[in-house]
């Protein structure tokens, strides 16, 4: 018991001799020391563009028949879209095209047979005015399958927003550098930018395509369902290497 008391006393004395943890003001940095800081900034901006993805699928006894049937409907649908949308407000682009055989189920002792052919082509409709999405879907309903609708920030708006985001990112990096300088007990001017890099922007709004198409089909043409393009949270990442001078 006496030995335990002696050991306990020695332990307490050792703890008492440990100095207090260093404070931020006690930190020091070697000349030309490098510090890497990063940030991600976000702005909420209105979506000013819509992209509608459509498709036409038809079958035929031969590959030629399937393609002919598909192209007939495709051309009719493209004509209907151009008639329904204001000139200069929509860009129509043909997408992937495939024509594939459909085979019978293999039976014992027999090889598979080609039953018919399927031909399919996608169409991408870019609307420079997202409020036209309803009219575009109404015009497409009779001819196309509806694959998806995406409201997004246009390229031009993205470039404008990127400038603002870069300014936000640099301001945040500067504020963080000032905190570092204060921790080292040096003026903010003593921390210099050595390298600076920016990442890509992210953020888009995707409505649920099947649900939207069902709503449009159920609504009379004279009483079209309104769709809001909404907003996107657009983010930009950045990083910088600072040197202590």
> How does the major sheet shape up?
4 strands, antiparallel
Number of domains: 2
CATH topology of the largest domain: Alpha-Beta Plaits
Q: State the order of secondary-structure elements, H for helix, E for strand.
A: HEEHEEHEHEHE
Number of strands: 7
Mean pLDDT: 82
Radius of gyration: 32 Å
Considering DSSP H and I runs of 4 or more, what fraction of the residues is helical?
A: 25-40%
Strand order in the largest sheet:
3-4-2-5
| Top-tier CATH class of the largest domain | Alpha Beta
CATH architecture of the largest domain: 2-Layer Sandwich
Which helices and strands, and how do they pair?
Elements: H1 2-17, E1 34-46, E2 49-60, H2 63-84, E3 90-103, E4 114-127, H3 133-140, E5 145-152, H4 155-183, E6 191-202, H5 209-218, E7 231-244
Antiparallel strand pairs: 1-7, 2-4, 2-5, 3-4, 6-7
Question: How would you characterize the overall build of this protein?
Answer:
One of its GO terms (biological process) is DNA damage response. This protein has 245 residues and is of the alpha+beta class. The protein folds into two domains: 30-47 and 154-203 and 233-245, Translation Initiation Factor IF3 (2-Layer Sandwich), CATH 3.30.110; 49-152, Protein of unknown function (DUF541), domain 2 (Alpha-Beta Plaits, 2-Layer Sandwich), CATH 3.30.70.2970. Helices cover 35% and strands 36% of the residues. It is built from five helices and seven strands, in the order αββαββαβαβαβ. A four-stranded antiparallel β-sheet has the order 3-4-2-5. It is elongated, with a radius of gyration of 32 Å. The model is unreliable at 1-22 and 208-216 (pLDDT under 50).
């Amino acid at each position: 018991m006496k030995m335990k008391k002696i050991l306990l006393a020695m332990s307490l004395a050792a703890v008492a001799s440990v100095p207090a943890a260093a404070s931020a003001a006690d930190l020091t940095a070697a000349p030309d020391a490098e510090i890497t800081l990063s940030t991600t900034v976000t702005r909420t901006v209105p979506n000013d563009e819509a992209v509608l993805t459509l498709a036409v699928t038809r079958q035929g006894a031969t590959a030629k028949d399937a393609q002919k049937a598909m192209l007939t409907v495709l051309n009719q649908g493209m004509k209907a879209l151009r008639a329904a949308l204001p000139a200069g407000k929509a860009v129509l682009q043909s997408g992937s095209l495939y024509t594939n055989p459909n085979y019978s189920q293999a039976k014992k002792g027999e090889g598979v047979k080609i039953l018919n052919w399927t031909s399919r082509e996608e169409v991408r409709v870019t609307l420079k005015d997202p409020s036209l999405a309803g009219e575009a879907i109404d015009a497409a309903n009779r001819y196309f399958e509806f694959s998806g609708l995406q409201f997004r920030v246009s390229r031009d708006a993205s470039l404008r927003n990127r400038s603002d985001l870069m300014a936000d990112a640099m301001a945040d990096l500067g504020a963080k550098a000032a905190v570092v300088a204060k921790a080292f007990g040096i003026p903010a001017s003593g921390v210099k930018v050595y390298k600076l890099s920016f990442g890509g922007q992210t953020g888009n709004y995707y409505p649920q395509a099947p649900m939207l198409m069902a709503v449009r089909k159920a609504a009379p043409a004279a009483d079209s369902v309104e769709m809001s393009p909404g907003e996107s949270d657009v983010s930009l990442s950045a990083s910088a290497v600072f040197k202590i001078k």
